[in-house]
Amino acid sequence: MIRVLLADDQLLVRAGFRALLDAQRDIDVVGEAADGEQALRQVRELAPDAVLMDIRMPLMDGLAATRLITEDPELAGVKVVILTTFELDEYVFDAIRAGASGFLVKDTEPAELLRAVRAVVAGDALLSPGVTRRLIAEFAARSKEPAAVAVLDRLTDREREVMALAGIGLSNEEIARRLVVSPLTAKTHVSRAMVKLGARDRAQLVVLAYESGLVRPGWLG
Prior knowledge:
- Keywords: DNA-binding, Phosphoprotein, Transcription, Transcription regulation.
- It holds the Pfam family GerE.
- This is Response regulator.
- Residues 148-213 form the HTH luxR-type domain.
- The chain has helices spanning 11-22, 36-46, 62-71, 92-97, 110-121, 129-142, 157-167, 172-179, 183-197, 202-211, and strands spanning 2-7, 27-33, 50-54, 79-84, 102-105.
- The protein is built from ten helices and five strands.
- Helix 2 (36-46) packs parallel to helix 3 (62-71), helix 7 (157-167) packs across helix 9 and helix 7 crosses helix 10 (202-211).
- It is 49% helix and 13% strand.
- By secondary structure, the chain is α/β, with parallel strands linked by helices.
């Protein structure tokens, strides 16, 4: 059972998400929060698998709450998905760097929301595939000069190659086609790279790809 916490200051938004999620046999909405402080308290009390987190909330915004969740070692298993009104909300970039596992626009199709919740718990985020490459392009445009690449020495040549392809927004299936391997093999290489680099999820692996210099701005074409 996937345990989900909803954090949004709009009651109707929470009610809509709850109705959809609770109707699934494998998903249970364990709590709701109307502000960032309440969200943080409930995450610590309930330890959900995933949090659907709005950015603009009173008392503490979703970005600050996300950072506190992802920085807490005791909450390492909690995945945060940012909810945004627009496809590229000005705060989404900062949320990914703060440790969010991905993002969804609030008017996403119900089937995509359900797929996203299941995917993020499985470690397969970034989310909202239609705008993933735009988000990565924004990250590339803002990224600082890469740090020393010694961290990449932990990876095999194949793992570096796969990490670079993930860094430009390719899914496991697209990586598999590019390298002429099975999707399971591609996923295995991605997972091994995440473990070796201590990345929480695929989103953080993308951040590391840019910050290490493995992927550079302009590679998206």
